[in-house]
Amino acid sequence: MMNSPLMPIIIPFAFAILLMFAPKQLRFQRAGALVGAILTVAASIWLLQKVHIDGIQVVTFGSWPVPYGITMVSDMVSILFVLTSSIITLFTIWYSFRTIGIAREQFFYYPGVLLMLVGVNGAFTTGDIFNLFVFFEVLLMASYLLSVLGGEKIQFRESIKYILVNVVSSALFVITVAMLYSVVGTLNMADIAQKVSDVNQPGILTAIAILFLVVFGLKAAIFPLFFWLPSSYSGPPIPVLALFGALLTKVGVYAITRTFTLFFTGDIAFTHTVLLYLSVATIVAGCIGALAVWDVKKIIIYNIIIAVGVILYGVATYNDTGLRGSMFYVVHDMLIKAALFFLVGIIVYITGQTNLKKMGGLMKRYPSLGWLYLIAAFSLAGIPPLSGFIGKMLLVKGGFEAEQFASGIWILLSSLIVLLSVIRIFVYAFWGKEQQLSPIKKTVYWQIWIPTAILVLLTVAYGVGADALMPYMTQAAEVLANPQLYIDAVKGGK
Fold first, then answer.
1. What are phi and psi of 2, to 5 degrees?
2. What mean pLDDT is predicted for residues 221-238?
3. pLDDT by residue (tens digit) across 76-117?
4. How many CB atoms lie within 10 A of CB 140?
5. Would you give the DSSP letter of residue 319?
6. What's the pLDDT at 494?
7. Are 282 and 306 a contacting pair, CB within 8 Å?
8. How many other C-beta atoms are found inside a 10 Å radius of the C-beta of residue 52?
9. Any residues with CB less than 8 A from the CB of 211 and at least 6 apart, and which?
10. Residues in domain NADH:quinone oxidoreductase/Mrp antiporter transmembrane (predicted)?
11. Which of 63, 114, 169, 341 suits a disulfide with 218, CB 3.0-4.6 Å?
12. What is the Cα–Cα distance from 40 to 125, expressed in whole angstroms?
């Protein structure tokens, strides 16, 4: 019970190691990965309720006193990220059974997926800034495997850029952590938050904050550091792309959210204004990209960039409403992005290509796929009563409360551009003249349609059931808006 924050990390790690012993046993690989993901989701749900009822959960390895021991912390912010990531991984594993290919399945694909989940959940849970770097490297090493698995030319070409960017950002991460340590003398996040107020060097701390924004901005793909993402993410197969698109940028978003609400709060007039401008510029860049391309995968990839800007906009406003909107929207976006990549994967699987101009007429043979895609597209764009609408309304309200009226209106207008970008897929792929299609067995089609449909329905339920879920978002926003809650829980050993 005391080690509950570790369960969403230990379970996928244990199953990943177990699966490595029999990589060629296909049934064992599939069953083991599925069971491991289900248990991780179950542990995450239980931990969510424990945090909601009992408060922030903290475990320090070896019972060392804070800040000397390595601390893992589950507050409402981290557990919402952990639970959503675990759910997406579960559906991705299910979806992979018929889409990733047997050759990849028998070459450590499922251990790679579970190890990436270990790194993602660890990054969300750690209470130590250096161990945030460590978990970043764990998830990156797993993502390197997944990005090249299969040995296709496009994978090798695009993975080089992805690896180089992350190697540079990781080196800068270590340097920035060293600079922060030289100023405050600690690596524990709660201890850093407590000591930064005593450090009479606001200029240095602001410079370090901007360096961290660059480091995490590279990983989150904010403007102007998003240049690597559209092409790098277009290389891997669809299940891997769904994982990358839903999870990896959100780790960078989480890191910015955590650091800029926990200890980089001494010069909000500068740091959070910079973050506000960058978030708006990120939305603009993503909108331009989403309208400019005709590749169905890249249209959704550019929408990843738009969502990063939208989420960080709420963090930049730094008020209860904006933070609550960010937390609600990030869960929505992770779920809907995975669902959209699944849907696009089915479209590509049926048509045999990604060029939208060469598609058409799918509605005649696959009406259920068409209407399912339309629901997901409306949810992404924020059409009421779907989940995207609720999150954006909270974000806009938060912007207005912070007297950022122009940017708040832009958040609303960007929804129209998002809708236009994704509705093009519906119009061009599902209507018009029917094009030549790749043969696909009905059993295979339904086996990949079912997990996709369930995930889309889950996003619908998330929006319809917003009233029941809002106390969790409010609790998360309270932790972000009041860092002392986090500090007291960690330093007090609660």
1. -70, -25
2. 89
3. 999 999 999 999 999 999 999 999 989 899 999 999 999 999
4. 22
5. S
6. 42
7. yes
8. 13
9. 172, 175, 176, 179
10. 128-409
11. 169
12. 14
Token pair belonging to 375? 């629901």
Average pLDDT of the chain, as a whole number: 91
Note if the pTM is more than 0.85. yes
Share of the chain above pLDDT 70, in %: 99
Instruction: Tell me which residue of 355, 379, 238, 362 sits closest to 307, measured CA to CA.
Output: 379
Length of the chain: 494
Q: Is the model's pLDDT at 493 over the cut of 60?
A: no
- How far apart CA 215 and CA 289 sit, in angstroms, is 23
Q: Mean pLDDT over residues 160-175, rounded?
A: 91
Query: pLDDT per residue over 260-307, tens digit each?
Result: 999 888 888 899 999 999 999 999 999 999 999 999 999 999 999 999
Question: Is the distance from CB of 425 to CB of 296 less than 8 angstroms?
Answer: yes
Tell whether the model's pLDDT for residue 1 goes beyond 60.
Answer: no
Find the largest Cα–Cα distance for the chain: 68
The rounded distance, in Å, linking the Cα atoms of 37 and 86 is 7
Q: Is the pLDDT of residue 359 over 80?
A: yes
Distance of CA 158 to the CA centre of its chain: 20
- Dig out the tokens for 183 from the structure: 């100023």
DSSP 225-294: TTTTHHHHHTSS-HHHHHHIIIIIHHHHHHHHHHHHHHT--TTHHHHHHHHHHHHHHHHHHHHHHHHH--
- What stretches of 88-129 adopt beta strand conformation (E)? none
Mean pLDDT confidence for 355-366 = 88
Chain position carrying tokens 């001494």: 266
Q: Give strand pairing partners of 74.
A: 57
* pLDDT recorded at residue 8: 96
113-117, 152-156, 207-211, 248-252: least confident range: 152-156
Residue 126 pairs in a beta bridge with: 72
Residue 372's pLDDT is 95
Distances, alpha carbon 397 to alpha carbons 230, 311, 325, 389, 417, in Å: 31, 14, 9, 12, 20
> By the 8 A CB rule, do 71 and 60 touch?
yes
Residue type, 382: G
pLDDT, tens digit (0-9, with 9 covering 90-100), for 454-474: 999 999 999 999 999 999 999
State which amino acid sits at residue 92: T
84-109 core/surface letters (b: 16 or more CB in 10 A; e: else): bbbbbbbbbbbbbbbbbeeebbebbb
For 300, other C-beta atoms within 10 Å of its C-beta total 24
Q: Quick one: residue 60, left, alpha or beta (phi over 0 = left, psi -120 to 50 = alpha)?
A: beta
Q: Which two tokens stand for residue 119?
A: 């790194």
What are residue 57's DSSP bridge partners?
74
Find tokens 């929006």 and name the residue. Answer: 463
Q: List phi, psi (to 5°) of 106.
A: -90, 10
Query: For residues 146 and 243, is the Cβ–Cβ distance under 8 A?
Result: yes
